[in-house]
Specification:
Layout (H helix, E strand, L loop, with lengths): L1 E7 L2 E7 L15 E6 H7 L7 E5 L8 H13 L7 E6 L1 H13 L5 E6 L2 H7 L4 E6 L2 E8 L4 E4 L9 H18 L1 H16 L2 H21 L14 H11 L3 H18 L5 H13 L12 H6 L4 E2 L2 E9 L2 E8 H18 L1
Parallel strand pairs: 2-9, 3-4, 3-5, 5-6, 6-9
Antiparallel strand pairs: 1-2, 7-8, 10-11, 11-12
């Protein structure tokens, strides 16, 4: 088991990569524990839960709503939770978001931690202290910054995931390589088959390398005022695609990365050969769907939390492993969208 610490203004968080639930029992309080999970995870791992009050939500993106946060808070209040209580989010990305959000607002904040059970949450959603729920069709519009005390990433739990979930997690795994580590990009590409096959020795090493990237960025910019924005690479387009077409999050992000790379080439930031490398690699990994951007994409992006005064902070590429942040006007963005959709129409 490897230990990684995030220390900063948003608090301290200990990431335990490769451990088991037994490794964190001593980090939990002897009383006042509330476990937030979903019904699928409870069926799989309920017998491994530490002793505490279990609150299970419905699995999936539909639970990322303020209504669910309110319902969980009400159930905690009815069960006698107070400011000394401790929340353990036990599940994937949606569970981590809900548990972190509840921990941020219940009685103005209680202690919390995560046991992360999916590839997507182990490399991304559970790390770094961001929480968020959706507002209508807009992703993660309401949220907070609050570091979990610890995050346990038990790699053996990934063996229970369906292949579609693993591929979705690979989308976020690739993202960390694309923004920061060219060698990791090639290593993930070479190991894609082993990741899908459940080789935890290989997968665990790749997860650890990605987590180190996120931990370093989150430590330096805990409230996403500057450098941390690079973690949003692929998400500006990806969130629109995810909402419009109902794609898994990581698959939508992979498609969003390719579109952002197209924008990078269009803006003169990156050579076309780098775009081709990214597109070919993600295609071979089974992550690309070839969807056009919906007609209302600019309108949706203009309401995105990365938008400021009719301009959008876009993470672009200089090359695989190197990023740059540019502010792009909605007019220029619409021009690119028209170009991209016309190009896609001719390629289909």
């Amino acid at each position: 088991m490897k230990r990684i610490r995030i220390n900063g203004p948003a608090g301290e968080s200990l990431i335990l990569s490769g451990g088991t639930v037994d490794d964190v029992v001593t980090l939990l309080p002897k009383k006042g524990l509330f476990i937030i999970t979903d019904r699928n995870v409870k069926k799989l791992y309920g017998k491994q839960f530490p002793h505490g009050e279990v609150i299970a939500i419905e699995p999936g993106e539909k639970s990322k709503r303020l209504k669910v946060v309110e319902e969980v808070c009400s159930r905690m209040l009815e069960a006698g939770a107070d400011r000394s209580s401790f929340i353990l989010g036990f599940g994937g990305g949606v569970v981590c978001d809900i548990a972190g959000m509840v921990a941020s607002v219940y009685m103005r904040g209680v202690r919390h931690a995560f046991v992360s059970t999916t590839l997507l949450s182990q490399v991304d959603a559970s790390i770094g202290g961001k929480t968020g729920v959706n507002l209508g069709e807009y992703k993660n519009t309401i949220g907070t910054f609050r570091q979990p005390e610890f995050v346990l990433c038990d790699h053996e739990m990934l063996k229970t995931l369906p292949e579609a979930e693993v591929r979705s997690g690979m989308g976020e795994l690739f993202k960390y390589a694309v923004i920061r580590d060219r060698n990791l990009f090639f290593d993930i590409s070479a190991s894609a088959g082993q990741i899908i096959a459940g080789n935890m020795a290989v997968t665990g090493d790749l997860i650890l390398r990605a987590v180190r990237i996120k931990a370093g960025v989150a430590k330096d910019d805990p409230f996403e005022k500057g450098k941390r924005r690079i973690l949003n690479f692929g998400h500006t387009f990806g969130h629109v695609i995810e909402t419009h077409y109902g794609l898994p999050h990581g698959v939508a992000v992979a498609n969003g990365m390719v579109i952002a790379a197209e924008l990078s080439v269009w803006k003169g930031e990156m050579a076309h050969s780098e775009l081709s490398l990214l597109q070919t690699t993600l295609g071979k990994a089974g992550l690309l769907t070839g969807h056009k951007l919906p007609a209302n994409v600019v309108s949706m992006i203009s309401r995105d939390k990365k938008s400021e005064s009719d301009r959008v902070n876009f993470v672009l590429l200089r090359s695989i492993g190197r990023t740059v942040i540019r502010r792009i006007s909605t007019f220029e963005l619409q021009t690119f969208v028209n170009y991209y959709n016309e190009k896609e129409s001719h390629s289909q």
